[in-house]
Write a structure and sequence with these properties.
The protein is of the alpha+beta class. The chain has 13 helices and six strands. The chain has helices spanning 8-15, 20-30, 38-41, 51-59, 67-76, 78-92, 133-144, 156-168, 199-205, 222-225, 241-256, 260-271, 278-292; strands spanning 149-155, 171-178, 181-190, 193-198, 213-218, 227-234. The chain has a six-stranded antiparallel β-sheet, sandwiched between helices. Helix 5 packs across helix 6 (78-92). The radius of gyration is 25 Å and the shape is extended. 22% of the residues are buried.
Amino acid sequence: MALTRFSYNLAKASFKLCPRQALKLSQTQLLKPTLSTPASRMFTTSKVLSKEQIEELQANPYFDKYAEKIAKLQKTNPEEFLSRIEAKSAKDKPAQPKDFSLPGAAKPAVSSPLRQKELEKIMKVDLLADKTPEEIALIWNEHFAAKDAVAAVIPLDTYKVMEERFKEFNTFLFPLPRDMGYEFVVVQFLGHEAHFSTLINYQAHKENAPECLSMVHYTELAETKGIILMVGEFDKDVINPREAKCLADQVEIYYSRPSESKLELLNNFTKNPQYFSHVDLINEMNNLEIEEQPAEQKN
């Protein structure tokens, strides 16, 4: 389900400074010149090993053992030999820094009303009748451990507090740490669901913005077991498991146990957008990271 459109004045006031870091970097990538002049087309490249690749190959502890086979492959099938070397070099390269997102394609408009998703579609609820909350939590978390998802089991009393804040502050903004700064993600709460989209996508497509994370809270076991089962499925092309968990953790912190400063951010974003500052939001994230460090690492 796509995000819903909310007050333009609220969005304008709250977001006026937020996207520029991400947008500035994205524009430089979009405007990167291509080599299409006649002069640039005069040159072609051939596959040859660089001096560094040769030295790396010879430094391999298995080089002497397989030197004869390497020489034979190089002589009989040089293209395959070079392809293998390049593949090995590419695999050993350090990961590139995570950059900011670019706008994606809009999702199709959805006019049908929101339908509560059912836990029965995931697991047999009647088979959980004789299980303890702890056993159900173990089953739930193991079920999603190998999937592109984050999962949690929330005590009913905690969820009741969160649900009230979902209604009061149904739209908010979370910072997501990137290698080159922070990217902002919009979240909207609809019923027992939470829908996340990068700010740059929300600004481009409004309620049809593609989602990077969709979170569902299943309430079927609330009365019998006193727990809520949560799962959030994410788009691995936009965020990774660590970033999905970061967003889920921020939901839990801001909506179940916010500090006075975090509660003020929620209030300002919703009720006094002229006082909302994305810098304060980032400062809260930095403070959170410091608080989570072991005591001996704090300076």
